[in-house]
Amino acid sequence: MENNVSIYGEHKPELEKLLNSILLQVSEIREEMKSQLGIDPVEHCLGRIKSEDSMREKCVRKNLPVTTESALEKIYDAVGVRIVCAFVDDVFTIRDYIVNSGRYEVINEKDYINTAKPNGYRSYHMILRVGGKYHAEIQLRTISMDTWAALEHHLKYKKKIGARQKLIEEELKRCADELASTDLSMQTIRDMILEGDN
């Protein structure tokens, strides 16, 4: 495929429509939860369509042909949405809203919150499909999980770590575990406050 031809072919408008549909639904969920809890459960929500270069690079990395078919049918994160919540429970509440909405076919879920990756990464991932053709990846996480992932991403690209690599990985894992413990404590405090309101 020539680089001046979109890897998404003529499907970009449909991907944009899917992205906007998900973002609109998240807004609706936020409003509903806000009316129940009195506060917005989402700290921030970001959406994007994977850039042409990133999608081409991912096809190559996965040993797939650099084609529209690969981009739409073999790789599932052409559309990506990250929802960052204040509390762990809100992550799972929003997940339930999305699953029960009936708008999407959920084809895969990975719970890296209850079962973290070995490096300490925590997040909840969902792959949605619409119309049997278009896919979106949803990442749900807390503020602290998002902060850790952003910092780890920056550190991952630092060069010349050498002999300190193992120590750095251990420290990153320790930080991730401490943040997870803080998330649980903050959730407990919120639960106590909400119980006091009842």
Tell me the layout of helices and strands:
Blueprint: H1 12-37, E1 42-49, H2 52-61, H3 68-74, E2 79-85, H4 88-100, E3 105-111, E4 124-130, E5 134-142, H5 143-156, H6 165-197
Parallel strand pairs: 2-5
Antiparallel strand pairs: 1-2, 3-4, 4-5
Helix pairs in contact: 5-6
Our measurement of the CA-to-CA distance between the termini, rounded to an integer number of angstroms, reads 61 Å
- CATH architectural group: 2-Layer Sandwich
CATH topology call = Beta Polymerase, domain 2
The poorly predicted ranges are none
Helix tally? 6
Number of strands: 5
| Averaged pLDDT | 91
Shape: flat
Order of helices and strands: HEHHEHEEEHH
SSE-based structural type: alpha+beta
Question: What characterizes the major β-sheet?
Answer: 5 strands, mixed
Provide an overview of this structure:
- By secondary structure, the chain is α+β, with helices and mostly antiparallel strands.
- Helix content is 52%, strand content 19%.
- The chain has six helices and five strands.
- Strands 1-2-5-4-3 form a five-stranded mixed sheet.
- β4 and β5 form a beta hairpin.
- α5 runs antiparallel to α6.
Features of the shown structure:
5 strands; 198 residues; 19% strand; alpha+beta; Beta Polymerase, domain 2; 5-stranded mixed sheet
Give a brief description.
The chain is of the alpha+beta class and 198 residues long. The chain contains six helices and five strands; from the N terminus they run αβααβαβββαα.
